[in-house]
Amino acid sequence: MYGFYFDQTLCNGCKACQIACKDKHDNPIGVNWRRVVEYTGGSWQVDGETARPNVFSYYTSMACNHCEDPICVTVCPTTAMTKREDGTVYVDQSKCVGCRYCEWACPYSAPQFNAQTGHMSKCDLCYDYRQTGQDPACVDACPARALDWGPIEELRAKYGDQNAFEPLPDPSITRPNLVIKPHRDAQPFGHGTGFIANRQEI
Amino acid sequence: MNVAELPMILFTVIAQMCVGAFLVLGVVQTAGSLRFSAKAIDQVADPALLAIGPAMIFGLAVSMFHMHDVTHTFNVIRHVGSSWLSREILFGTGFAALGFLFAVVQLLKWGHPRLRQGLAVLTALVGLGLVYSMSMVYYSLVTVPAWHSWFVPLQFFATAIILGSLAIGTALVVTTLVHARQVARGLSAPDADSGRKVSLRERFTTHADPAVRDEVEALLAVSVRGIVITAFVAAAVLLVAIPLYLGGLTAVGGVALQSVEVYAGGLFVARLGLLALGAGLLAVFTYFIAAKPRENLGRLVVVLTTSFVLVFVAEVLGRALFYESMFRVGV
Predict the structure, then answer these.
(1) pTM
(2) Residue B1: inside a domain
(3) Structural domain of residue B250, as residue ranges?
(4) Which of A33, A67, B274, B278 could potentially form a cystine with A123 if both were Cys, beta carbons 3.0 to 4.6 Å apart?
(5) Which chain B residue's Cα is nearest to A190?
(6) Which phi and psi (to 5°) does residue A56 adopt?
């Protein structure tokens, strides 16, 4: 079972991962298998006559988490959404009917509609690169080395097993193969006080 | 209004109306057979059956616009063991096929009546399966709080009952009006016992026999009254359920609050108003004038048609808001 690791403490939101992915897979405008989400919030601390801002902002780079319980695979009517032997989830282009039901279901926005093919498309953890011993494009592109990938057991042994942070969904829904090293201001799932500041970019 | 989802809006509303209409027609026929002759029942009920088929085929055809690669269409039933969408499509095509078969054997009076009845029961059960699986397509998305709710099956079944009843009510009075005009023009069906072969067209012309006509009138009064009571009760349940549903969503919080906001504008008010007017006020009026269907036939046609059209628009608006309220958890 392969998965991703992401270090929120290193990411500065440059989106090199997103562009490397788009370039590698030659995806059209609007199709972004990896996206960088900016989560922002804050409050005022009033101390006598002085009001001090107390703000935070952190980034989460998100692609497909190749979940243990992928809701996209469960709901797909055609069986085009397929889990490989290695646990990664991909779209069988010979079966997909382009109904976009998986797009409604996935809480990570991983399956995306490609209007050029009329089919769904998504991150396959760079299957072809992996066959030749290379890393996925996003992992190698990150200048801060905030991304890593590998067998999820190894990632968990190396980096821990946390992944329940805002603005990500409750991990119990799909059990994502994802490990996150939280930013110092990261808010645990269900206790978020901020908002996604770059909706139009993701 | 959510134009992008128009195919789904029309498909769900029309398919639910067809299932409801089939069920209501079944009740009219079954309950009617206790008190009335087969001749009277067939005369009132058979023509309505003809309207369901084209509506269902139209609904299924529109739903095809939701696919972007029709060459892969037959793949959509592959995942029936897991996907409610596959199940919905199986039940949908099953209902249309069985309904078509039943309409053919019923209108041509092929086979034993018991056999036809069995086929009707099977079709009705598949229809119920269709409405249920349709609601589960949305309910099973645990990532969309506005859809993962008890309200979705309730709303879909309510639409089926309200629109189905009013559609059949309208069809019954319109058919009777057409018959009355045919009688006025001197057209009448030959007596079935005369041994002469009866053409399909003649099957739909009325019986000049005054006894049958009185029976048809009594059957019409009972059916229309039952139909408007059913629509009234189902609409009342829906109108009580909507605030409970929105209250529940507010309690869930998070993205569910964005869904609640959708149910605040003028379209929502129009949806509630049209439902209350069509299935409430006009239904009450219909109930009273249905006591004397022969004298009030013209009025019944106008009022029931208006009521049906208003409620159809109300349900389409309601379904548009339902798709508009799609807000998913996560990123």
Answers:
(1) 0.91
(2) no
(3) 6-324
(4) A33
(5) B254
(6) -145, 160
